[in-house]
Amino acid sequence: MGKLSKRKTTMLILAILFVGLCAFALATKNVAFADETEIFAGGTGTKDDPYIIETSMQLNAVRNNLSASYKLNADIVFTEDDFAEGGEFYNEGKGWEPIGTYSAAFKGTFDGNGRIIKNLKSNQKGNPSALFGLSKGSIMRLGMIDCNIVSDGYAAGICAGNDGKINECYVTGSIKSTGSGSGGIVGYSQGMDYENEITNCYSGGKVSGSHAGGIVGVAGPNRRSVCIEYCYSTATVVGLVRGSIVGSATGTDWGQVEVSGAYSIGYCEEVVGRVNYKRQVRMDRCDVKTVDDLRKQDTYVGFNFDKTWKMDPNADYWLPTLRNVPNYVIAPYKNTTDYEDGYGTFDSPYLIRTSEQLDNIKKTLGAVYKLECDIVFDKTEFSKNGNFYNGGKRWKPIGTKEEPFSGSLDGNGFCISGLIIDRADESGCGLFGSNVGNITNLEIENFKIKGYDICGGIAGYNYGKIENSYNLTTVDGYEAKSYGVLCGKNYGTISGCFNTGDVTASVGGAAGIAGYNDGQKEYYGLIEKCYNSGKIISNSANVGGIVLVNDSDNAKIKNCYNTGNILAGRFAGGIAAENHGGYGSNNHSILNCYNIGIVRAKGSTYGISPWFDSKYFAYIKD
C-alpha cells in the first residue's frame, strides 16, 4: 500500500510537471507573439492587417520577420545622433544594416503608404548597402530623401539586390559603390526566382559606381526577365560604365531585360550605358530628353497621368510626381552660383568663364560643361594664399580613379594655360585625374606638372574620349617617371589630337600624345589620327613620338605620324619607344603610321617602335 501511494505520488508529480511545462510553453509562445505585436504600432503582419510602422526602431524590426506584411504610418526621419557612436544605428560605423540578405531575402510586402524615409545612412564594407539588402517581395509607395549610401558591393536607395517588385517609389541623395553596381532605386536587378519589375519610379541626386544607373546599376537576369517601365531620372551619374536609367544590361538565354517608357535629363548620352547580348535586351520609348521636353507631359509616353502620375510644368518641381507619394526632390535648376549659366545638360551645359568655375567641375562630375573663353591661371592663384595652393600641391586634378569625371567638357576651341601641379608622391596628375567622359576641342599651354608617374596635361588616366585637343607651346615643366603631353595612360580613345611644342623631360620618359596606351578588361586603348611635330628630349629615359609604351595586344595606334626629332637617354621610337603588341608582320597594334623625324638614343632606336620590320612605316593592314 505504501509502495502504491509512492508510485501514485510520483505519477502525480510527473503529471503536474508535464502540465506545467505545457503551460509554460504556451505562455512563452503567447508572450513571444505579444512581444512581436507590441514592437509595432498595430497589425498582425498579414496582407489584410499589416504591421504598422511609426518609428525607426519599428522599421528596424522588419528584419525579424522577412515574410510578413508592413505599412508605414509616419515619416521616418533619422538624425546624426542615430548613426554616431553610441547611437541606435551606429553598428561599428556601418550605419543602417540592410533588411534581408542573399541567404535570407525579404519576401514580404512593404507598403510605404505615401510616407518618406529621410537621412538613412549605410556604409557596408564587403556587403551591399540600401534600405533592403535583397528583396524577393513587394515594395511600393515609398519616398527616400537625403540618403547617404556607400558600399564596395552593390549600392542603391531601395534595394541593393532586387528579385521582386518595386512600384511607385523615388529616391534622392548620394549613392556610391566603390566596387560594383549602383543605382538610384536598385543596385542589381537579377530576375532569379521571380519576374522582376521596377515600375513608376524616379530618382534624383547623385549615383556613382563602376556600373552606375539613375534607376538600376546592373540589370542581369538569370532565369526570369527584368522589366523597368515608366521611370525617369534626373540624377547625375558617375561611373566607368554609366547610363541615365541603367548602367549596364545583360540579357541571357533564360531571361530578357526590358526597358520601356524610360526618360532622363541630358547628363548622360545613353539611357542604358552598356548593352551585352543585345538580342535579349529590348528598349522601347527610351530617350535622353532636353530640359524643355521634360517640361511637357506628352514626352512621357505610357505614363498613367490619370491614376499614378501628376504634373505641373509651372511648379517648382516641374517634372512628373507620384499621386500617392508626396515629392521632396529638388528639380534641376540653372546653376549661376558655381557657373556662368546652364543646367549642366547637353542642351544647356554649364558655362565656364573663370578658373574658379573650372574648379567647380569637381562638384558635379557627371554633368556637361562648355568653355566660354580662355582660362588663364595667374601664378598668384597657386601661391600660399591663393585659391589653388592646396598645401603646396597646387591644382587638385578633377576626378579620381575611384570617382572619375564622367561628364563632357567642350573646350569650344578655347585654351587653358598656366596650370601648376606639384604632387610628387601622386600618380595620375593632370587637369583631370581620371576621365571616363568626353573632353573635346581643348587647347592647353604652359602647364607645369610634377607627379610620381602616369601624368598628362589633359588627363592622368583616360577611359573615355579625348578628341580634337592639342598643345602648341614648349613643355619644360613636366616631371614624372612617365608622361604624355596630353594623357598619362590611355584605356579609352584619343582621336584627332596633336602636339607641336618642344618637350624637355628633366625627369622620366616623355611622349607627344600619351605615356601609355593600354588595354584592361573591357577597356582597349585607341589612339588614332594624332600627330607630334615637336622635338622631344629625355636625357635619362625613353622617348616616343606618339606614346612611350603601347602596352597590350588590344591597344591600337592607327593613322598617326611623327615629324619631330626624338632624343632619348635609353630607348627611342618615332611612334612608340616600347611596343608589347606582337612581333614583326604579326603585329597589328600599330597600323598605318609613319615617322620621318630623326630618332636617336643612347640605347636602341626604332623608326616606328620595337619589333617592326620597317624602319619608318608601320604594318599596313589590307
Query: pLDDT under 50 segments (min length 5)?
Result: 1-34, 613-622
Question: How many helices?
Answer: 5
Q: Work out the helicity level.
A: under 10%
Question: Which band does the percent of strand residues land in?
Answer: 35-45%
Shape: elongated
**Structural class from helices and strands?**
mainly beta
Distance between the termini: 115 Å
Any idea what the radius of gyration is?
30 Å
The count of DSSP E runs of length 2 or more, i.e. the number of strands, is: 60
> What is the average per-residue confidence, as pLDDT, rounded to a whole number?
88
The major pleated sheet works out as: 15 strands, parallel
Give a written overview of the molecule:
Helix content is 9%, strand content 41%. The radius of gyration is 30 Å and the shape is elongated. By secondary structure, the chain is mostly beta strands. The chain starts with a helix and ends in a 16-residue tail after the last strand. The protein has a 15-stranded parallel sheet that branches. Strands 24-25-27-31-36-40-47-52-57 form a 9-stranded parallel sheet. It is built from 5 helices and 60 strands. Helix 5 links the parallel strand 24 and strand 25.
